[in-house]
Amino acid sequence: MTQDKESVKPVIDDAAANFIPSITAATAAINMMKHDVKFNREIMPVQTAQALVLERVQRGFIECVPLEQAYGRHLAEEAVSNRPVPHFRRSIMDGYAVIAMDTSRTDTSNPIMLQVIGEVPCGSVWNGELRQGQAIRIMTGAQVPDGADAVVRLEWTTTVESTAVCDDSNDEIYEVLARPGDADGDVSCSTLPMSEVAQHVQSRQVIAVHQAVKSGEAIHGIGTEMQAGEVLVQRGQRIGAGEMGLLAMFGYAHVQVFRRPQVAILSTGEELLSLDEELTPGKIYNSNSYILLAQIESAGAIPHLLPHIPDDIRTLRERLDEAMEQYDVVITTGGVSVGDYDLLYEYTTNWDGDLLFNKVKMRPGSPTTVGFRHSKPLFALAGNPAACYVGCELFVRPTLLRMQGVEEPLPKPITAVLTEAYRVRDTFDRYVRAVLTITDEGHAEVRPTRADISSATVSIRDANCLFLSPASQVGMEAGALVQVFPLGGLQELK
Ligand SMILES: Nc1nc2c(c(=O)[nH]1)N[C@H]1C(S)=C(S)[C@@H](COP(=O)(O)OP(=O)(O)OC[C@H]3O[C@@H](n4cnc5c(N)ncnc54)[C@H](O)[C@@H]3O)O[C@H]1N2
Ligand code: MOO
Ligand SMILES: [Mg+2]
């Protein structure tokens, strides 16, 4: 943890107090001390601040939901396969289950004839065993009958017209098979025992196989996809389409998931209007609450937009105390800096909670303030929209993910090439809103969005990532390798 202090000159000094009749020297001295304290905040590196928050966060409660309501939730149990996949030898083609050896001497000019003894549609099982010279019609996904070790796809076979000719002198039947595509009308004969004639002749089921197949052809053996005992979905993993499929495959009609954290959003500031109010001079609409709403939903939590709070410490105290009782997490925006109406410092230094930090070595969002009260976190984010947004990505999102069982909830950086110079000097690390693209050659490139200032919302719309420009006297040159943090939620779809 760094110990450097950011020293800012107090706005009132003793000399100034002498010229303000309503302020006594004593009051001015107290005010100055207050300002000193308010200004001289310990500046904390981002990683230290994130670690401090995460070590206080507790995993949330667990609830049981039907699988159809589990998409997007985080699994609270480890789901393990209790059988291999597939659990029977599965045909991956429509065709005929055969004994591969039977086809070994076949080729296009000399197809082998096989007697079709039945069929296995999906969901059925062939009771009995396939013997030499026989084939069973089979569909994709059906269980391969015992005795068969290959499936010949339908396209490699033709059905052969067959006519039964009885020979009364013995109990055998001669069957005349017209070879498909045989221009000169050649015929071949095969002898079948009488016992098998009825089924055979009745359904005229003889096929010519035009291509030799190897043992295992078009069959997925037991366990080819997954063995018994493999982890299907880890505890804490978010349930997406693939996870839904796996859980369904193993018959999880209900699953244990982490409860979605209930998050209160309270903007502060006398200048704020609700969206149904008319825009009047000096006022602005409360847009931060809606930015946060999106971020919280995309982190899997449930946002609650509460009415914004005017710049009055008593009201603020009442409203925040109440919110901290009712919700799992409370987020405020605005009022964390050193202005006369910035009240979050006052609240978080005179409460029955622990203040973790109120100055982070980052921009935007340097006055980001976090504390815990009765083991619930309060995130007092800066009022500037981009500062609020970045503060939420770096501190709130990881917290909400940890509450939902994610072991490593911090955003993971990738490396990309900066396509244009970013010459912003700063003693703080800068998390720059930017656009990450993958070139046709497969390289990751990143460029800053146009409005990099803390008050800009348009750059939140345009960005799909943040890149880190470490504290520097010179900024960064085009071509530099930078750490990029892809943004969560809908942003990642851009
Ligand atoms: N003397 C100094 N002034 C400032 C410092 C400093 O170190 N010394 N830090 C600056 C930095 S950095 C930031 S970030 C901001 C933080 O401001 P606050 O958190 O106190 O926020 P406010 O003063 O309430 O508002 C700032 C700005 O944001 C607009 N805002 C506030 N809430 C909303 C909302 N819900 N929706 C849309 N916009 C909102 C507000 O109108 C102001 O324009 O302080 C700097 N000052
Ligand atoms: O820390 Mo602030 O967001 O730079 O204006
Ligand atoms: Mg302020």
TrEMBL record:
EC number annotated for this UniProt entry: 2.10.1.1
Class of enzymatic activity (EC top level): transferase
Pathway: Cofactor biosynthesis; molybdopterin biosynthesis
Classification via NCBIfam families: Glp_gephyrin, molyb_syn
Domain MoaB/Mog: 264-402
Entry similarity comment: Belongs to the MoeA family.
One Pfam family in the UniProt entry: MoeA_N
Xref: Gene3D superfamilies: MoaB/Mog-like domain, MoeA, C-terminal, domain IV, Molybdopterin biosynthesis moea protein, domain 2, Molybdopterin biosynthesis moea protein, domain 3
SUPFAM superfamilies recorded: MoeA C-terminal domain-like (SSF63867), MoeA N-terminal region -like (SSF63882), Molybdenum cofactor biosynthesis proteins (SSF53218)
Catalytic reactions of this protein: adenylyl-molybdopterin + molybdate = Mo-molybdopterin + AMP + H(+)
Name of the protein this chain belongs to: Molybdopterin molybdenumtransferase
UniProt KW keywords: Magnesium, Metal-binding, Molybdenum, Molybdenum cofactor biosynthesis, Transferase
Signal peptide: none
Top-level taxon of the source organism: Bacteria
Cofactor: Mg(2+)
Job of this protein: Catalyzes the insertion of molybdate into adenylated molybdopterin with the concomitant release of AMP.
